[in-house]
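Researcher: Here's the sequence for the chain we discussed earlier.
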Amino acid sequence: MTRTSRPSLGVFLGAVVSIAAVVATTPPLAAQEEKPAQEKPAFDWVAGPLRADLGKHAQVQVPEGYVFLGQKQAGELMQALGNPPTGQEEGVIAPTAEDQNWMLVFEFDGMGYVKDDDKASLDADAILKSIRKGTEEANKYREKHGAPALTIVGWEVAPRYNETTHLLEWCIRGESEGRPMLNYNTRVLGRRGVMSATLLVGPEELEATLPTYRELLSTFDFMSGNRYAEFQKGDRVAEIGLTALVAGGAGALALKTGLFKKFFKLIIVGGVAVVSAIGRTVKRLFGKRGEPITPTA
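Model: Thanks. This is the structure I predict for it:
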């Protein structure tokens, strides 16, 4: 396990400025960089291979060639990228290879045990109709805040549930000002809640990235006592089922993880540009060939 040196917020501000430049008239990046950053929180990215803790709930394997940011700073990273943290962030994984621009964000919602009684009756058409209706309402909010409207194109991957792994996944294709937008969402059911794993990737890179994404998720496991099969009578039971997980999680295509308040500034305004900007940000923490920079003592 190798701990990287601690990059400053300036790195992430550079990414935010790059996104803004795509969609608005801003001073050149060089001019922006001349202004000293007022705050410089450090991010302790850790290079794989390692078995990483996702808070107190689960673990995931981070292979060589990837970096991990833990629970304590995952929310700070979201905030540094211009997005209000939810307080549910558990960890972030990103590749260091130059040709890979994506990020995997884990969040845990302690809503309780989600019964999968509706697993055989997931109605993709009805769910999509609900999502479109919710997006129409959300567009009113976007308009008030000067952001472009979002159109739900349809399912990239219709909701599907694996009752062996208790894994629910789906992907919706949206469009804003002619730019395609995707969220690939996975929910893993546990005894005490649901772990969200959301892939941030450009539409053109989704197909190539999915095998790696699924390989990473195959190493995910809830810790002992937190697994779905370990449910006991008297445990808290969630008030929603699988259908509501999809309809609520994708309701506004809200744009990083399906939560409208998250990544509003970057993805609603910047579209797919955020993905490459995040990729460049991570690359700046590592050598050109993906080697970790010299660790600090």
